[in-house]
Amino acid sequence: MSVDRFRFVSPGVFINEIDQSQVPQESSLATGPAIIGRTAHGPAFVPTTIGSFDEFVQIFGNPIPGGGSGDVWRDGNRSAPTYAAYAAQAYLANSGPVTMVRLLGDESPNASGTSVISKAGWKYPNVAQNTAGGPYGLFMFQSGAAEATLEGFLAAVFYLSSSANINLVGSRPEGASSIAANATVLNSVTVNSAEELKVRIMNAANTTQVESTFNFDKTSSRYIRKVFNTNPQLVNAEITPAANRELYFLGETFDRTINDKFPLPATAKYGVILGLSGNLAGVRANLGSFQTTYKIPQTPPIIAQDPGPAASFDINASSRELFSVVARDEAEWAQAHLKIAFKDIKPSMNASYEPYGSFTLQVRRMDDTDNNPAVLEEYNNLSINPNSPNYIARRIGDQYSSWDNTNKKFRFYGEYPNQSRYIRMEMDPNVARGAVGKDWLPFGFKGIPKYRGFNIVSGSTTFKVLSDSGSIAAVAQASTLCVAAGSGSVMSASMNEVVGDFGAGRPVVDCGPSVLKLTASLQFPVLPLRLSSSDGGLSLDKDAYFGLQTTTSRTSLVPDDTIIDLVRMRPPSLQRLEPTSTEPQERGPGFSLDNLVLNGAQDAAYHSGSGFGYIEASLKTLGGARRAGTSITAASSSYEEVLNLDYNRFVVPMAGGFDGFDIEEADPFNNTRALGGENTANPSVNDYAMLYSAKKGVDVVSDPDQVDINLMTAPGMTVRGLTNHLINACEARADALGVIDLEGGFKSMAENSSAFSARAGTVTATVAQVKARALNNSYGACYYPWVQIRDTLTGQTVWVPPSVAALGTYASSQAVSELWFAPAGFNRGGLSQGAAGLPVSNVVDRLTSKQRDQLYERNINPIASFPAEGIVVFGQKTLQATPSALDRINVRRLLIFLKKQISRISTRILFDPNIQVTWDRFLGQVNPLLRSVKNRYGLAEYRVILDTTTTTPELVDRNIMYAKVLLKPTRAIEFIALDFVVTRTGASFDD
């Protein structure tokens, strides 16, 4: 303190203590690795900084050990380990934070072609359209009079390879005047009992591969998803041994639709199998084609109350849109696990003070019930008033980003920062600018897209599919009722005509002398809606959330996982969010509180009048109860009446999300096929969609001004096009070390179906690969071989790439010593002693002394196994071939650390006067930092020069301050030479 700042009032001695020995605060613990790869869920391509493993699990889910099978279509892919998640766990066990970049399937905007490697997503099968294979729908209906029009619904979708055939088997109604209980309806359709059907799947030679009787009762051993293959990976010949390979997989099933439409005790069920691929207006459209990039799900538009007149009410056509709720950078997981609920919807209580009403938005778990809601987030007292502090977009956030592929950066849009972990808002423009009625409130939602229904009619020699209007389609194919070899009928994607055929090799079926005449209306399933406030046995009817119902039946409290299939993305050839009149889609039934009807004093019922779903026939009027004048709001002529009765809650799903992965791959980022394979120096991003995705993951953390990291890794991904890209990104940043995995080592079961010994890899192959690359970069490091860990959550053993163990040693080494100590050796690299942050129990390859030398000579750090000491990281070289101090990891990490710290000091004097006082401030902070590092054995010696010899008058005139920082890094002991000298008995050790 200056003497001028003392306040002298009376005589005395004034003493001030000035401490100039303080070391500037270091932020090394606030900087950690960027980890790029797959996780169970979480934001996609968004660098997310995580401080603890508990926080990681909350956002990205538990690490997946792999080996999972079961119902992969419905439950998700858990077949291959998520190496990136294990790397995060390894590092966070001893240090933090980590910056996680979760990958989904993307593709270059310059991508060309439609092959499985150039496009994200999947197509099944990957052959020309309108040929054998692809998606086949099983439609089911009940018995009726021979000439009656029956109503059927899609029950399941089978996806067949190009060499597979499918048909229903069983008895037929030969000579019957009506459809009997044991009747076959179309295409060899089979009924074995009043409750079950039977499907036969054959190969190209018409040899039966699968023939199973099934039903839609989850408690039965014959439940459809138990008796048929639901794992698409079993069709993949590259990763599935021939003995276990399948020619098909079962995709969507709609259990609730079938059980609701045909409840027990039921009369006989019947079915027809129709192809779901064909032509649409001359353009090929395959309902089994999902080749596209990842998509973010969202709710259909949330709508306001109907302004009237009630007689013209139509939810999808005349409703007023307010906003949509969009998942935050999350895809399929969000729509399968989250739903959006609205409650406490209230009109304004004081129009002169606040003319807008209010409401609450909840993010709930999909599998909860209204009896026991599981609320993940809740936002109360929201408003659509853009000038209010409670404006829904302001409270929740509306920002989103778009990747600029040219400049390799995100561009951000939206007015309000996102506050929710799960969602963001997308406001209708009229709402955002305050151009809507102040009394508008969330009252329901428009329907999500569904395929249009269609009619079928059979005659003596023809089988025709009718348009949804009921008229016979212009194209009438003369295909017989029962399938003969090489002929048949495939329903087109437009759902209104019969085109093509099943392809050659179809089974010959003896149709018999008689012909069944049948007219049927076939529909596609829609979202189940709550029909009564008493559904589920709530203790208080007013607690009922109308709208989406997520239980297996009206009375059940068991979660209905068929919802997952109802909210899936449609093929990219169709509009994902807003179907058009020219495509085979339409909006399904939406929901509005305007259609609630009061049944007695307490119970309310929903009369949609949509003509879809599980509504009694008498209620299938176009506008529902409001148009009929029987709803609460219509009868009272006031939207407020239904809210005053406390029926002010509804639930809506999010839909249309897509991960962009090939469902046949256990690991969508496997090196052999997805990333381009080995021995390919630089595959074009136009040819490999998943390589583009992985490179994008590197690019999003490549700017040091945006993302603060000191390490970078993409565990398990070995192709050169990616690992070179990662190392180069670290070098360009100049403040991060890239830890890569190498070709030539172990291959996981996601790569191929070979025996373990054939996938183990060798030292020779790994060394040869590195030698061929001629790497010379101190910003990269690599290790060999893979190690086996024990998953601490499941107890399973998992083979993980060496980068996972290495990352753990970096964290544990700096935790027990300093960042610039070598993360190797028995003190800091002992994996058996926990240095990896995960329990390491084995190595793929037990190295000899000679093999360790071969690896180290090529700058590959060995992970060795010793009989007494256990498994240890036994090297710490970078990938720099030129001999210097920077060919060691401890020195490179020291330099990264010091450059970051001194750069931060430098930024605090930018734009200050370029004079001695400023120079002294800089030296006064840098010298204590370097002195501290020296005292902690990071530096042997240092010197900082900043005076007129470095910052000359010419540089001052050019607004430049130039300092030199001279460093002598402390070297680690890697070689110890000991001479043991045996002497004569009479020799003196003092000589």
Summarize the structure in words.
By secondary structure, the protein is of the alpha+beta class. The protein folds into 4 domains: 28-109 and 661-891, Rossmann fold (3-Layer(aba) Sandwich); 124-284 and 451-523, no CATH class; 302-446 and 545-566 and 588-653, no CATH class; 908-991, no CATH class. The strands form 11 sheets. Strands 5, 6, 10, 11, 12, 24, 25, 26, 27 and 28 form a 10-stranded mixed sheet that branches. Strands 2-3-1-35-36-37-41-42 form an 8-stranded mixed sheet, with helices on both faces. A hairpin with a 3-residue loop joins β32 and β33 (603-606).
Low-pLDDT residue intervals, each spanning 5 or more residues: 1-10, 12-29, 127-131, 171-192, 279-284, 459-517, 610-622
Proportion of residues in β-strands: 15-25%
Overall spatial form: globular
What oligomeric state best describes the polypeptide chains here?
single chain
For the terminal residues, how far apart are their CA atoms? 63 Å
- Overall pLDDT confidence: 82
CATH class of the largest domain: Alpha Beta
Major sheet: 10 strands, mixed
Total number of helices: 23
CATH domain topology of the largest domain: Rossmann fold
- What is the correct CATH architecture of the largest domain? 3-Layer(aba) Sandwich
What Rg do the Cα atoms give? 34 Å
Structural class: alpha+beta
Topology, number of strands: 44
* Helical coverage, percent range: 10-25%
Total of domains:
4
